Amino acid sequence: MPFGVLVIGPAGAGKTRFCAALQTYGDVQSRSIHVINLDPAAEDIPYRTDVDVREIVTVDDAMAELKFGPNGGLVYCMEYLLAHSEWLEEKLLAFAPEDTILFDCPGQLELYTHVPVMPRLVALMQRWDTRLCVAYMMDSVSLGEPSKFIAGALAGLSAMLQLPLPRLTVLSKTDLLAPDVLEEFLEIGSATTFLQTCDNRNTKFLKLTTVIANLLDDHSLLSYVPFSIHDEDSPSHVLTYADQLTQYTDEAEVRIPRDIEGEEEEDPDTAFKALMHHHR
Ligand SMILES: Nc1nc2c(ncn2[C@@H]2O[C@H](COP(=O)(O)OP(=O)(O)OP(=O)(O)O)[C@@H](O)[C@H]2O)c(=O)[nH]1
């Protein structure tokens, strides 16, 4: 049974670039990482898609032919996928047990909070023996203001409540944060304390934000994994967490770095760093 990570989060949080960076890392490490695009509205995908929902349905077609708006069209497409789940099952059956599959999901959080389509899809995939976890992408911009932080964390919490899976919260685009801000945030390890350190707190809602922050702490929502497409160590950190969540390493074979033809065997980390540098 393959191991899958559902990559979810608001539009623009960095899901697609995250999948691309992990796939590149997998190429260098000779770890088989596949990406499945589950976003029927996706454009310009920067990774190799092994499976793409747009093969069977697209939001553009739903809008043109059935006169849906963009959000209604998306819900229609995901329900269409659910109704034709044998297509996805067949694709998933083709993967090997040691494969890692990243599901690049649509960004509209309504899909995880208002309609039952994603929980149903998850239940089906579990029935097909795919071990899953969720990576919720939270944009680092959320650390800029207490209200953004609360909104981002609660959006993640509400999506995760619908998906009964082990989860990790990825703090994306950390290269955009001042290094001391990131370091301090990760060191604090408590939403309540973090909000107390913010200068720009809205005193009107102080009691409310404190209660919410306590709730976040109780649910360990501050155990973030930092991620940046410009940091070559990020993919391995995230994969280590995800592997632990799904016990990937119990079954996967230990892999030997790929020998580049005619060249001396290269240290995979060095090769990955070179590749990432090249992509910048
Ligand atoms: N600086 C920086 N920019 C990033 C990073 N990750 C993504 N971005 C940028 O953020 C924007 C959105 O990234 P995507 O990966 O397309 O985000 P998404 O969550 O897939 O977006 P949707 O497909 O709209 O849901 C793009 O302009 C990326 O170049 C990062 O780690 N650092």
TrEMBL record:
Pfam families the UniProt entry points to: ATP_bind_1
Role, per record: Small GTPase required for proper nuclear import of RNA polymerase II and III (RNAPII and RNAPIII). May act at an RNAP assembly step prior to nuclear import.
Subunit description: Binds to RNA polymerase II (RNAPII).
Gene3D superfamilies for this protein: P-loop containing nucleotide triphosphate hydrolases
Record-stated family: Belongs to the GPN-loop GTPase family.
Keywords carried by this UniProt record: GTP-binding, Hydrolase, Nucleotide-binding
InterPro entries, A to Z: Gpn, Gpn3, P-loop_NTPase
Domain of life where this protein originates: Eukaryota
Name assigned to this protein: GPN-loop GTPase 3
Region (Disordered): 259-280
UniProt GO MF annotations: GTP binding; GTPase activity
